[in-house]
Design brief:
14 helices; about 300 residues; 9 strands; six-stranded parallel beta sheet; alpha/beta; Rossmann fold; three-stranded mixed beta sheet; elongated; about 10% strand; N-(1-d-carboxylethyl)-l-norvaline Dehydrogenase, domain 2; 2 domains
């Protein structure tokens, strides 16, 4: 891999997560190309010193490493394929890292598409919220060719200061790991909702219930979700909305179905998310599905969550 001064990196997709990734790559001294469907979102990064591309193809023609940070399987295939897609312009031996949460089946298909062009595909879904991305403290799961992972590690560390887990040579495995992480978090959020509903029905003050979670769980991200559920405050400043969380839950179910593994608790969370959306919480933070336990217990929705 070329030196930092000669290496050009592209970030494709400048949502709240992609922007944080791009900013940290630029801060670390790499030449950066950015692309977004809405071109106005590239302005701040261009003003800070990056270059802008009109299409994924144009970005790929200039870069050694491309990082896509999008929404789902379809959005990744959209920027990879077609006459203006990444693969139409990619240079031989270049590397595409997908930081998007996608299905393991999609990762397998994408690997094949890249191999046919003589280029490398690495699964690198990230774990964290927009503030974590801005701080360069995301976590990631990387899978694919080890020699290629070795070449990209210093770039990935720019935005994943929280840690990297090498998930092996099969690109599908990083996707399975990310969905497993999301299932852990979703299960804890749902548990918060159930316990707060139970304790509130028994007139236990929420600040006392909070002490239980503080005693059992110490990770700041988990404690942050506890506070959201405790205060029933699900504002969403650029993070994953409840509708977006439904996408990941459906991915978990589909991933289990693919290998014949039932995930009954995921079905429960799915129904709680649908309940939340039906109660007008679809654009709130994805943790708002914890409200379903209260709603199903006859506890009225908090006024601010209706706005």
């Amino acid at each position: 891999m070329a030196s930092k001064e000669n290496l050009i990196v592209a970030v494709l997709g400048l949502g709240s997560m992609g922007t944080g990734i791009a900013e940290n790559i630029l801060k670390n001294g790499y030449k950066l190309v950015v692309w977004n469907r809405t071109q106005s979102k590239t302005k701040a990064l261009v003003d800070a010193g990056s270059m802008s591309a009109e299409t994924p193809r144009e970005a790929a023609q200039q870069c050694d490493i491309m990082i896509s940070c999008l929404f789902d399987d379809a959005s990744v295939f959209d920027i990879v394929q077609g006459e203006n897609g990444l693969l139409a312009g990619i240079r031989k031996d270049s590397i595409h890292i997908s930081a998007t949460t996608i299905s393991p089946m999609a990762a397998t298909q994408l690997t094949k598409l890249h191999q046919e062009k003589g280029v490398h595909y690495i699964s690198g879904p990230v774990l964290g919220r927009p503030d974590t991305a801005a701080a360069g403290k995301l976590r990631t799961f990387l899978s694919g060719s080890q020699s290629v992972i070795d070449r990209i590690t210093t770039v990935v560390e720019c935005y994943c200061g929280g840690g990297l887990i090498n998930s092996g040579e099969d690109p599908a495995h990083a996707c399975v790991m990310k969905l497993s992480a999301n299932l852990c978090v979703a299960s804890i959020i749902d548990m918060y909702g159930q316990i707060y509903a139970l304790n509130e029905k028994w007139k236990v003050p929420t600040d006392i219930t909070k002490q239980l979670f503080s005693m059992l769980f110490t990770h700041p991200g988990i404690l942050a979700y506890s506070e959201k559920v405790r205060n029933r405050e699900y504002t969403n400043p650029g993070g994953v909305a409840l509708r977006g969380g439904l996408k990941d839950i459906n991915l978990m179910l589909h991933t289990g179905e693919e290998v014949g593994v039932p995930l009954p608790f995921v079905n429960v969370i799915h129904d709680h998310i649908v309940t939340g959306i039906a109660n007008g919480l679809g654009d709130k933070d994805w943790s708002a599905f914890a409200e379903s336990a209260r709603l199903n217990s006859g506890i009225q929705q908090k006024e601010s969550n209706n706005s």
